[in-house]
Amino acid sequence: MVVFRFKLTRSVKAVLMIALLCYLSIVLVGIAAIMQKPTFRRTVNNGNFPATGRPAALVGLKHTDSCSTSSGNKTEEQKTAKPKTAPCPKTIASLTKYSKWFRERYQPGIKLFLDRDDTKHYDSLSASVLPFGFKKQNLTVMSQILQHKDFANPPVHGLAGRQSCIRCAVVGCGGILNGSGAGKEIDGHDYVFRVNKALTSGRFANDVGKRTTFYTFYPESQHLNDVEDKNVLAFFTMFKAYDADYALNMMNGEKPPKYLKKGKKYGVRTPVVTPTRVKFVHPNFFFYVFKTFLDSKAYRPTTGALVVFLALHICDEVTIYGFGYDPRFTMHYYDTKFVVHTRASTGVHDVDNERKLWHKLHEEGAIKLFQRDM
Ligand SMILES: *[C@@H]1O[C@H](CO)[C@@H](O)[C@H](O)[C@H]1NC(C)=O
Ligand SMILES: *[C@@H]1O[C@H](CO)[C@@H](O)[C@H](O)[C@H]1NC(C)=O
Ligand SMILES: *[C@@H]1O[C@H](CO)[C@@H](O)[C@H](O)[C@H]1NC(C)=O
Known about the structure:
By secondary structure, the chain is an alpha/beta fold.
């Protein structure tokens, strides 16, 4: 009896001890969880893209002054966007945890679009000429654009704010899309980015889809008439001095000025655009893409390259279609010409460098590059 009671007491003690240890460990785990900062946190930041806690090193980017959010004042986009709480398991920004190459380049805080606030930053914006800055530009014209009554600069994610796990398709003009039947897949994304003449009217819908969320253009490449979504947000890129004059006329609903090239005057099509739905790509963003990802090769990035990087800062997942200058296909899905893809064939762009970049981004897991057999 005595022995039994002794044993019972010991086992009760043991049980109590175990219970106490369990309790203590739960408390400790709890405290640890509270103290530990989340390794990946979603914040709303300039263009409402996700940001990591880890700052990305910027290689060779000079004028970052107006890119940061350090001025206590929020941009118009930040004011209207609401942070989302639902986490996305894997995002482009979270790739910085796994890829050194990407971490050293990707700058989540970069400003994507110009806003009224930029009229205060002409000093820092005037280090380079367009597309990288406003040097030699008529700053009165720039102010007339940015302070225009119709420059509403709507947030990219709409008034409802950023949703989580945004899947995006960026559609280039590569002949690889001809006969691909990828249209439904493209339209199935949350956002569809299109550029220049890479549009959908009629017989191409089956291969390239119909929807357009964001359309990016410059004066000579403007094909807004062929954009089927009337709610599209138009991203205007300024590559040269003329483009600023064009932009002001566009905001005023006027015909574009004549384009002077080598002493000759050229007419430019009037954009069919709602001025309140226009946004202007920030010169610092051009510079960042060029310096950081294209290693300053060629004279400037293609509009397509620029748009892929806009998508990398707006979305959680990006698939690019019709990129890569695959020599097995025609130059464009909308024409029948086979062209040897060289710098000469594309004007001022370094085609090989861009092709390598798409494959690199694909390998690193930042984008999915649409590829197919013949
Ligand atoms: C923020 O905006 C207010 C009012 O427009 C201005 O007075 C202030 O200087 C701004 N602050 C910064 C840090 O830009
Ligand atoms: C700059 O633009 C304004 C407004 O269009 C114009 O009045 C002015 O003459 C221009 N200045 C120069 C130096 O071209
Ligand atoms: C697309 O591919 C088909 C079949 O290979 C070809 O006949 C046609 O010329 C190509 N281009 C266009 C614009 O249809």
